[in-house]
C-alpha cells in the first residue's frame, strides 16, 4: 500500500503499543524489588498495561480493514475467510516456534519440568485464536460482520466472571503464596493446556481467551468506523462513552458472585477498550505530514511482531545478562534502580527500533532481489 493511501494512525497506534510493551517488559524484568514503589512506578506499570489490549484491539481492527480492502479488489468471501484462517494458524505456529526458541536458548530444558514452558499461553496465542474466531465475520457484509464480532465480544466479556469463578480453583499459586488445598484442584495433564487457554492461570498462562480475546473481537466490531475518512471526534466520543459506562458499572452493585476487577471485570474491560478507542481518536487528530518525525514510530508499528520477539528475548532471555557478565557488569535481572531501569527502557526502545529497521530492509532486499529464470538456471 502506498504511503499516501496508508492509514498512518494505524501504524502509530501499533507503535505506541510496542513502546508500552517494551516499557513494561523492562520494568518487570530489570527493576529491583526494593525500588517497586512510588507514583512513577505505578504510573509506568499502569501505562504498560495497555500494551496487550492495544495489540489485540488493533489486530481485530486491522483484520476487518484488510477484509474490506480485499472485498474492493473483488476477492471472493470464501477465499477471504480461508486467508484469515491461514493467517491465524501461521501466527499460532509462530507463537509455539518462539516458545521453542525460548526453551532452547533460555536453558529451560535443564529443569525437570522445563518442557511445560513450551505449552505456556501468551499474547500471540490469544491473538491467533482470536483471529480464527473473528474469521466468522470475514467475508460478510460490513454491518453483519461488525454485529457478529460485537456480539461475540459482549458474550465473552459477560461470561468471563462466572467462568473464572469455576476455573480459578484450578489456578496454581504464585511463588511465595500459600496454596489453599481445600479450594484448589490439581488438573490432570490432558486438560491443563485447555484450562490455560480459557483462564490465565500462572504459571501456565500470562493471557487467556476470557476475557482478553474480546478486545480483538471488539476491534473488529468498530472497524466500520475506521473505513473512509478520519473521524476523530466519533472515536473520542466512543472512547469516552465506553469509559463512562465502565466507571458507572464499577460504582454500582456487584453483578457476579465472583468478580476480580483487574482480571475479569466487565467494567475494567469497558474502560480499557474506551482508552484504546480514545487513542485512535487522538492519533487521527495528528496530520499525515507528521509521518516524517514519527517515522520511527511507524517502523515499530509495522514490525510489531519483530518488536515483540526482540523485546521478550532481550529483556527476559539470557542474552543480555550474559553480555553484562562478560562486560564485567552486574546482571540486569531484577537488579537495577528506578533511574537505571528508565535508561534501560530508552536503550531497549532504540535497540528494538534498530532490529525492526534491519528486518524491514532485509525484507525489502529479498523482494527486490532478481530471481533466476529456469532457462538461466539451466
UniProtKB/TrEMBL annotation:
Pfam families, A to Z: Acyl_transf_3
Transmembrane segments: 12-31, 43-66, 87-106, 118-138, 145-164, 209-226, 233-249, 269-286, 306-329, 335-359
Residue ranges occupied by any Acyltransferase domain in the UniProt entry: 8-356
Keyword Ribonucleoprotein attributed: no
Entry keyword set: Membrane, Transmembrane, Transmembrane helix
InterPro entries: Acyl_transf_3_dom
Protein name: Acyltransferase 3 domain-containing protein
Amino acid at each position: 500500500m502506498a504511503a499516501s493511501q496508508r492509514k498512518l494512525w494505524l501504524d502509530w497506534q501499533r507503535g505506541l503499543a510496542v513502546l508500552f510493551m517494551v516499557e513494561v517488559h523492562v520494568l518487570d524484568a530489570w527493576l529491583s524489588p526494593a525500588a517497586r514503589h512510588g507514583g512513577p512506578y505505578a504510573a509506568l506499570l499502569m501505562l504498560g498495561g495497555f500494551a496487550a489490549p492495544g495489540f489485540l484491539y488493533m489486530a481485530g481492527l486491522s483484520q476487518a480493514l484488510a477484509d474490506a480492502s480485499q472485498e474492493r479488489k473483488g476477492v471472493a468471501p470464501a477465499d477471504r475467510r480461508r486467508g484469515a484462517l491461514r493467517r491465524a494458524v501461521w501466527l499460532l505456529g509462530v507463537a509455539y516456534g518462539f516458545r521453542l526458541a525460548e526453551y532452547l536458548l533460555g536453558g529451560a530444558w535443564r529443569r525437570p519440568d522445563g518442557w511445560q514452558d513450551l505449552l505456556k499461553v501468551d499474547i500471540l496465542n490469544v491473538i491467533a485464536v482470536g483471529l480464527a474466531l473473528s474469521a466468522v465475520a470475514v467475508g460478510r457484509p460490513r454491518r453483519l460482520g461488525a454485529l457478529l464480532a460485537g456480539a461475540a465480544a459482549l458474550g465473552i466479556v459477560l461470561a468471563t466472571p462466572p467462568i473464572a469463578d469455576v476455573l480459578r480453583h484450578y489456578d496454581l499459586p504464585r511463588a511465595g503464596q500459600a496454596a489453599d488445598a481445600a479450594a484448589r484442584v490439581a488438573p490432570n495433564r490432558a486438560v491443563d493446556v485447555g484450562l490455560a487457554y480459557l483462564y490465565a492461570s500462572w504459571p501456565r498462562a500470562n493471557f487467556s481467551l476470557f476475557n482478553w480475546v474480546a478486545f480483538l473481537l471488539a476491534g473488529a466490531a468498530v472497524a466500520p468506523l475506521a473505513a473512509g475518512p478520519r473521524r476523530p471526534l466519533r472515536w473520542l466520543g466512543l472512547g469516552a462513552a465506553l469509559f463512562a459506562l465502565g466507571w458507572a458499572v464499577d460504582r454500582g452493585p456487584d453483578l457476579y458472585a465472583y468478580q476480580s476487577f483487574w482480571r475479569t471485570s466487565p467494567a475494567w474491560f469497558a474502560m480499557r477498550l474506551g482508552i484504546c478507542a480514545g487513542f485512535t481518536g487522538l492519533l487521527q487528530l495528528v496530520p499525515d505530514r507528521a509521518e516524517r518525525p514519527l517515522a520511527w514510530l511507524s517502523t515499530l508499528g509495522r514490525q510489531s511482531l519483530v518488536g515483540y520477539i526482540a523485546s521478550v528475548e532481550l529483556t527476559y532471555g539470557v542474552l543480555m545478562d550474559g553480555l553484562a557478565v562478560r562486560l564485567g557488569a552486574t546482571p540486569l535481572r531484577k537488579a537495577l534502580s528506578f533511574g537505571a531501569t528508565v535508561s534501560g527502557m530508552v536503550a531497549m526502545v532504540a535497540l528494538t527500533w534498530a532490529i525492526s529497521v534491519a528486518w524491514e530492509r532485509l525484507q525489502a532486499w529479498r523482494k527486490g532481489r532478481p530471481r533466476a529464470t529456469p532457462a538461466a538456471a539451466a
